[in-house]
Automatic annotation (TrEMBL):
The lineage of its organism: Bacteria, Bacillati, Actinomycetota, Actinomycetes, Frankiales. Pfam families: MDMPI_N. InterPro entries: CHP03086, DinB/YfiT-like, Maleyloyr_isom, MDMPI_metal-binding. Residues 14-131 form the Mycothiol-dependent maleylpyruvate isomerase metal-binding domain. One of its GO terms (molecular function) is metal ion binding. It comes from the Bacteria. SUPFAM superfamilies: DinB/YfiT-like putative metalloenzymes. This is TIGR03086 family protein.
Amino acid sequence: MDIRELDRRALALTGEMVGHVTADQLTLPTPCPDWTLYGLLRHLVSQNEGFAAAARGEGEALPVWRSGDLGDNPHAAYQASAELVSDAFTADDALDRPFALPEVIEGITFPGRVAISFHLVDYVVHAWDVAATIGAPWEPDEDLTAAALRVAEIVPADGRGPGAAFERATVVPDGVPARHRLLGLLGRDPSWKA
């Protein structure tokens, strides 16, 4: 399946979770220790804008990755950013174009299909972060979970921990659903509650 279609599904999954957020929940802590729910939603908008810039060949500067604005309607801001990045990923050469991703590593580029897979795993897992924070169900479909799991399995151990894109992997018992294994590989505790 085209990674861009899977990514659109990840964006939709996250958008569904964001659509359930109420104003009084924005100050809640999230499974991402550095962010309240407001901060996480702002990160999601910023990342969509940054990946869209990278798809256009304009992703080198860190400010384009950090300027997301939620305004007075976080869901609308998220939806606009999701549409922006989906449109950018549909370019004919998007899968092969070099993407600069300074939030991953500065000074090198990644082929579009690899960069889009990074985006996909981020949004599948951040959908859980939002869902866990607000107490909503999170049920990515099997294809989405499998694609995200393939990416999570290759995240290097030395690129994890405080200040990195992902926390260190947590221990997840054998026999758990694949989606829980995905969370554990990316440093989440599937039993986390706000």
